[in-house]
Structures are given as structure tokens and as C-alpha cells.
Design a protein that fits this description.
- This protein has an eight-stranded mixed β-barrel.
- About 10% of the residues lie in helices and about 40% in strands.
- By secondary structure, the protein is mainly beta.
- A hairpin with a 2-residue loop joins strand 7 and strand 8.
- It has one domain: Sandwich (Hypothetical Protein Aq_1857, Chain: A), CATH 2.60.300.
- It comes from Lacticaseibacillus pantheris DSM 15945 = JCM 12539 = NBRC 106106.
- This is Core domain-containing protein.
- It holds the Pfam family Fe-S_biosyn.
- InterPro entries: ATAP_core_dom (IPR000361), HesB-like_dom_sf (IPR035903).
């Protein structure tokens, strides 16, 4: 069992909460695997997206749940190799971009958001 948690800062938390409702929250490792991964790693960097999917969506590829201040976040278990036990998602006030941080520092400096229900993208 992997003990991992993610904390969303105030700005990212509000943005996600305004859209989440009873839906599922995913942290997707962008490796081209599964229905919510947009592309494989083509730039030789680790890349993640935050996703919202319907409660009945197929999330069978997401076999690990991590705790957060927004409730459970589903991830592909093997993507934990690229994550740290203590994660945080930050909004960059200067340009509105998001960055994922771990114990070792910045893991992804350009995290995108996709709501698969409304097709909203950030």
C-alpha cells in the first residue's frame, strides 16, 4: 500500500471544486495509456493532467487512490514511480498555469486541466 497525499492550493482548489460536484477526480500521467491520457511523453519530461470524469466513467486503469483536501484522487498505480508521498498543486498567479510539486521539488511545471464532462480545458 502506497501512502500518498496531494494538497491543492486555494486557487486550484476553488477552480476544481466549482466543477467537481459528485464526479471523480483524476491525476493522469500522460503516457498515452487509457481513455483519459491525451498523449504519450514526447518531450522527454514527465507530464500530468488533472481530470474530471462522470461517477460511472470507466476508471479501471486508475488503480490507486490518494487522499487530498478535495477528497479521493485516482491515479494509475504505476505512475506513483513519478510522484512523491507529499504532493501539492499550485497556481502560478502571474500566468494562471499550474505546477505539481513533490518532496524533491517541481515534478511538472505545466499541469493542464480537462473536464471530460463539459470538455473544458485549461
Amino acid at each position: 500500500m502506497i501512502n500518498m497525499e496531494i494538497r491543492f492550493d486555494d486557487a486550484t482548489s476553488k477552480f476544481i471544486q466549482d466543477r467537481l460536484g459528485d464526479n471523480k477526480l483524476l491525476l493522469t500521467f500522460e503516457d498515452g495509456v487509457g481513455p483519459y491520457s491525451q498523449h504519450a511523453m514526447m518531450h522527454m519530461q514527465t507530464q500530468f493532467t488533472v481530470n474530471i470524469v462522470k461517477p460511472d466513467a470507466d476508471t479501471s486503469d486508475y488503480d490507486l487512490t490518494i487522499n487530498s483536501n478535495l477528497g479521493p484522487v485516482l491515479v494509475k498505480g504505476y505512475s506513483s514511480d513519478y510522484l512523491d508521498p507529499h504532493l501539492s498543486l499550485h497556481n502560478n498567479a502571474s500566468d494562471g498555469s499550474w505546477s505539481l510539486h513533490g518532496d524533491v521539488g517541481v515534478l511538472d511545471d505545466d499541469v493542464h486541466f480537462i473536464d471530460f464532462i463539459t470538455n473544458e480545458r485549461k
